[in-house]
Hints:
Blueprint lengths: L11 E6 L9 H10 L6 E4 L8 H14 L4 E7 L5 H13 L4 E5 L16 H11 L3 E6 L10 H13 L4 E6 L3 H13 L6 E5 L5 H11 L5 H10 L3 H21 L4 E5 L4 H16 L6
Helix pairs in contact: 1-10, 4-5, 8-9, 9-10
The chain binds flavin-adenine dinucleotide.
Amino acid sequence: MHTCELFRRKTVFSFEVFPPKKDAAVETVYDTLEELKYLSPDFISVTYGAGGSAANRLTVQIASDIRHRYGVESVAHLPCINFTKEEVLAVLREFEQNGIENILALRGDFIPGVPPKTDFRHASDLVSFLRENSACNIIGACYPEGHPESASVVDDIRNLKCKVDAGVSQLISQLFFDNGYFYTFLERARIAGINVPVEAGIMPVTNKKQIERMVSLCGATLPKKFTTMMEKYENNSIAMRDAGIAYAIDQIVDLAAHGVDGIHLYTMNNSYVAKKISEAVASLICSGRVSA
Ligand code: FAD
């Protein structure tokens, strides 16, 4: 099933998982998925390393198993910056052979010391290429606070419009901790003529190290309410985890009340956290959309 169809019916609620790092057993992600399937997500997406690591082979396997073993629709991420067209075609055929119908088309981040290949400069190039070579559903990434490399938010929205026009049918946002950024972004996107559904990316923060790393990568603004919480609980792991869960729930309640198209939960492969949040917001998600 093409996941873009889901938005017609309800507020979409989806998860993201990643293949285990090279020193962790693959079974760990299956233990997580076993738990996640009971939370009835609309789909689960699986990340794909831009660097061509061995874990990438697992993306295909995990995305395929999510669909065929756990009965949940899946999305495979695909960053293109280090691929040639031939290499993308090979991955695409592998996706098709494994029944993967939904692809999150990404540029990927530049890897220091690794010169990028030149067939795909932007995610929109990959979107056009996938459109020409596949019948898959194509999803794109978007950035409520602007992509860190873009000159301005307006510039970023203009580029996003090109990406959507190339053949994207739904968007998933970068994480953010202040819903105000998401609402402003959405307003600008709609004015720019971007009319596909946009899922809000929510990352529950369960430890200080995790968030410091994430913020250094994506540049998300940390509101005072958030930093106060971290300072208070950073040395108490259980309290920090519970506060992070509560913060994410608070964000989702507000987003659902504003009638967002969907919520994409960055689970960090933590099924306990995903369960707590899913249970808390289940009635908001199931009760359908309230117009913004
Ligand atoms: P693009 O859409 O190409 O945008 C990147 C930058 O280029 C932006 O500043 C944009 O404004 C600019 N731009 C775009 N088109 C043009 C143009 N035509 N002319 C000039 N400038 C242009 N990375 C991974 O490696 N693996 C993953 O699995 C992964 N999953 C992700 C999931 C989500 C939901 C998100 C939000 C990000 C994910 N990323 C992943 C990170 C992503 O690869 C990086 O954020 C990357 O820097 C940008 O990717 P993009 O697809 O948004 O790029």
